[in-house]
From TrEMBL:
Subcellular locations according to the entry: Cytoplasm
Annotated signal sequence range: none
Protein name (database record): Lon protease
Annotated ranges, domain Lon N-terminal: 6-198
Family: Belongs to the peptidase S16 family.
Residues annotated to bind ATP: G357, P358, P359, G360, I361, G362, K363, T364
Induction or repression: By heat shock.
Entry EC number(s): 3.4.21.53
Catalytic activity field: Hydrolysis of proteins in presence of ATP
Amino acid sequence: MSLVNLPIIVEDELFLYPFMITPIFLSDEKNIKALDLAIKDSTSVMVVCSKPSKDGERDFDSIYEFGVVGNVMRRVAMPDGRVKILFQGLNIGKIVMPIDIDPLTAKVQSVNLDDYDINRVKASLGVLKESVKNLSLLNHFFPPDLLRTIDDSNEANRVCDLVCSALHLKKDIAYKFFIEMNLEKKILDIIEYVNTQIETNKLQKEIKTKVTSKIDRANKEYFLKEQLKEIQRELGIDLDKEAQIAQYKNRLKSKQKFMSEDAYKEIDKNITKLSKLHADSAESSMTTSYLDWVLDIPFGNFSTKNLTVKDVQKELDSDHFGLEKPKRRIVEYFGLKELLHSRGLEDNNGAILCFVGPPGIGKTSLANSISNALKRELVRIALGGLEDVNELRGHRRTYIGAMPGRIVQGLIEAKSMNPVVVLDEIDKIARSYKGDPTAVLLEILDPEQNSKFRDYYLNFHIDLSKVIFIATANDASAIPAPLRDRMEFIWLNSYTPQEKFEIAKRYLWPNELKKHGLKSSEVTIKKDALNLLISDYTRESGVRNLRHRIADILRKSALEILNNTTQKVSITTKNLENYLDKKVFEIEIVGNKNEIGIANGLAWTAVGGDVLKIEAIKIKGKGAMQITGQLGDVMKESATIAFSLVKSLIDRGEIKIPKNLIQKDDKDKEKAVYDSYDLHIHVPEGATPKDGPSAGITMTTVIASILSDTPIYSDVAMTGEITLSGKVLPIGGLKEKLIAAYKAGVKRAIIPSKNYDRDLKDIPQQVIDNMDIIPVDTILDVLKIALVK
């Protein structure tokens, strides 16, 4: 077993066990130093108990060598100078070698149980559970929840620890059980102790019954209360417990008018419950943790800044270049809210904004701008890969280590009941046996329901109606349909090279200079070098990688200045490669040579548009067709439709076949060209999965070209789906596709007429000015434009 160096906290009163989450009050200087050391080094800490005869001393002779290794979950400074921590025990540790005494630090080794006979331990465990049930009928040490936990658990060692913690054993007895690594012997020893306690409690109960009958009720209550106070005073715990309860009550009273009645009743019930529990019990620890959480909820705290569209517009324009349509829709959204607020009307606008676009395009930064404009705290909840519904809904308090869901934690973090909450990557939520988080999001994002959202941990309703929820996604189609109905999508499309240049010039370069501690006079970049950086060293729709490459340049520049190699760095096209590793060509430039059987198709991906070359060859055969390139079912069907359509066009004479391609059969009859050859269609790159309903006209053009030996113009690219009758159907993602075509040097782009009429207004002017965009209705229109006459 490996050894680790850990700081050691000495506890005089409590005896801890690995499963416990326990509040500990620290007043000793060495203990506080040990805590600070653990927090500073981000390590675990070992809590050991002082020996009965050594109270107050802090050296290795005065403490036990076995203790509990765990983590500090929370640290709070108390008004009286002490420090309160919430400690979570993880496993048993043994002090192997002392290192220092101020604070106490030592080499610690994890300790595991000896091997044991499972059947014998199981039988012994059943006897122990029965004995505990009998003892619980005679005293108050075992609350119902604890009894249920003990009865339901099959982990023998954990059951032993639960029983020992509830019995409030003396230190020497508790330690004897604690260090026993023979599990069977440990269970038998505890059974013997429990049975002894049963007999003792029976005798005490009999004596108390006889004595109580002789005491007046009022005198008895007075006597017991005074006796309890005196006992607590001797133990030094009365003031702590009473002060803690009083503090909870004061905090609850200050928030009462801002919370619902069911919330007040639930919290007040738990404060009353805590006042009756023994400070050392596990249930006391769980109740304390619950009260710490719920009283941190910022009931009644709201951002008081009035919502103004001008502020939103100003912040969006200041932080983002381009994105005009998304920014206009955001302004409209908040304009409606401002109008309703100014007229004293209820805001029933239930739309939840969802920013959809490729990575690095600015979805999260738009949410940041909204948060800044509204002067509200921003809470980011990453949903990627989330599969446990309790992460959002909260854990039930029956579990050890339970806590509220992320939504409630976000309110506590923001210290406000109306923050801006970003639900990041909502399209990547998972679903498993732990539940479907989508179902919880349906309630959270529904204005009709979220005013009474119920967190399992809180066990009362909480109002989320004032929260502004903003979702982000890369692919809207991956979001479950019921959830899509709750949201209004704002599409963020790819940036053009010119837009990337302006963003880099206005935002990225100045911001990265500041982050790297450099002045604008120390490092400069020429316009041509910045354009080269964008075109040859990044491959993305957004600007995230561009920011990373700028950071690479500035790191090397800072090193040169630090080493006094130079006082000023100027980045040009000639020395740019000295600051970056290698070029990453974004999109391959189309060639100048017209070729047979090679066409440029336009595709949409989650990271923007791309130009796909579709290739075909013919081989002497019998009319079979082979398709490769890891295509999905939709593209395979497009190829099949395209082949059938080309056959039909050849039969009707719409596609002319050269005589040298026409062959004859055994009976000297001319065969159709498509029956004389086998076709092989390939879409590079073969390792990349491809699918989608927009490659139909490209497939048809390639097949028509290869069967008629007619070249295809190299500067033409196309997108559109095809029907068997030859009609060209509209497609999606036109802006990204045309931007990709523009970057690849395409001169003419063929698109469906319906897209031309509907979507051309969304295309950047820079693309429209530099490329001839041609609308088509039928496949014959496509072939007239694409095939060399």
